[in-house]
Design goal:
Elements: E1 16-27, E2 30-36, E3 52-59, E4 62-69, E5 79-84, H1 92-98, E6 104-111, E7 125-131, H2 135-148, E8 153-160, H3 169-178, E9 183-189, H4 205-213, E10 223-228, H5 230-242, E11 250-254, E12 273-280, E13 283-290, H6 296-301, E14 320-325, E15 328-330, H7 338-342, E16 345-347, E17 351-353, E18 357-362
Parallel strand pairs: 7-8, 7-10, 8-9, 10-11, 12-18
Antiparallel strand pairs: 1-2, 1-6, 2-5, 3-4, 3-6, 12-13, 14-16, 14-18, 15-17
Bound molecules: flavin-adenine dinucleotide and FE2/S2 (inorganic) cluster.
Flavin-adenine dinucleotide binds at residues 52, 66-69, 81-84, 86, 88-93, 133, 136, 253, 255-256, 311, 315-316.
Keywords: 2Fe-2S, FAD, Flavoprotein, Iron, Iron-sulfur, Metal-binding, Oxidoreductase
GO molecular function: 2 iron, 2 sulfur cluster binding; flavin adenine dinucleotide binding; metal ion binding; phenylacetyl-CoA 1,2-epoxidase activity
Protein name: 1,2-phenylacetyl-CoA epoxidase, subunit E
Length: 363
Amino acid sequence: MTTTRPAPVDAATGFVRLRVEAVDPLTADAVAVTFAVPDEHREAFRFAPGQHLTLRRVVDGQDLRRTYSVCSSAAGGPLRVAVKRLDGGAFSTWVADALRPGDELEVLPPAGRFGPRPDPARARRYGLVAAGSGITPVLSIAATVLDVEPASEVVLVYGNRTSADVMFLEELADLKDRHPERLQVLHVLSREEQESELLSGRIDRARLERLLTTLVPVDDVDEWYLCGPFGMVTEGRSTLLDAGVEASRVHVELFHADPPPPRQRATGPAGDAATVTVSLHGRSTTLAVERDGESILDRVLATRSDAPYACKGGVCGTCRARVVEGAVSMDVNYALEPDELAAGVVLTCQARPTTGTVRLEYL
Ligand SMILES: Cc1cc2nc3c(=O)[nH]c(=O)nc-3n(C[C@H](O)[C@H](O)[C@H](O)COP(=O)(O)OP(=O)(O)OC[C@H]3O[C@@H](n4cnc5c(N)ncnc54)[C@H](O)[C@@H]3O)c2cc1C
Ligand code: FES
């Protein structure tokens, strides 16, 4: 359902206030949130499978931003995310406990490059591996591919502790009913015995290796998409690469990574700062940025509140910009693909200048 009421845009940050249409429980600790998209923002909020939204909430003057993957089919599905409550989590507990239909939330249009761009002429087999809330972008990929590519097939390996923890149990069963020949779902449960010993346990290297030689032969799969906890995703990726899958066919999405150890402060001369110019929303700003001080993003935010960001941890990719002059170094990068790095794209939340002059264009 849509509304025609204009949704205000925050000109300084690009956030749009969207009305929450529905909040539906998925499990004891996860809810799906559906947004109403007014006609004038329909184009901006058109999403591709695997993309995510940044949601914002200001609490006691603190700007809380979190990223949530769209979980519905990009072929006509609603704008819907699913949030799993994290104990002590500032944003997810509020969404799970307090958000109600009719509330408004500030939302950035969809972003991210995790999923495929479906093509009706294509016949492919997609291998999807997810654990816990990592199902959200993966469900969108599965639903979209099955809707748009009539000759493609999907095999989903989905790990959870127990069947009560499985998000989208009904949606997955419905999807299977609609595409019985083209969708295979393998539920792997770590704290609940299943008939098959192969599907009882965690999705670790040993189990994935066995799955690749039995139920999901690696040569049958054209593209792999992995999303879940850091350990599962990194181990899953290396298992696939060791099994001979080309790196360009393995796509990963992380929701969280522990921050790296604190940086050592500069030992260089005081005032060892570079001149950094950023182009953003059609306007350029030049600032001095210390080579070993705050990140370029934090320096930019001091004067440009419209600089995009969410996690500040190198995970979500919201802060990406292209280096058009000079060079920067990044502490970590969990968001950019090799082709983006080759094109000079960097995460400004992780970037510090390594040359005296740097020019960046936000994407
Ligand atoms: C690209 C992307 C897509 C995402 N999609 C989804 C999604 O579809 N559904 C969803 O529920 N979440 C998703 N997330 C995670 C989400 O953005 C938040 O990180 C999560 O909801 C926790 O926020 P919080 O404010 O509740 O916790 P915080 O208050 O930020 O953190 C509380 C504590 O938990 C740790 N922590 C934070 N996030 C995680 C995590 N994901 N796993 C383990 N520990 C964590 C923190 O270090 C901190 O110690 C996504 C993240 C990214 C980067
Ligand atoms: S803000 Fe998330 S990667 Fe920079």
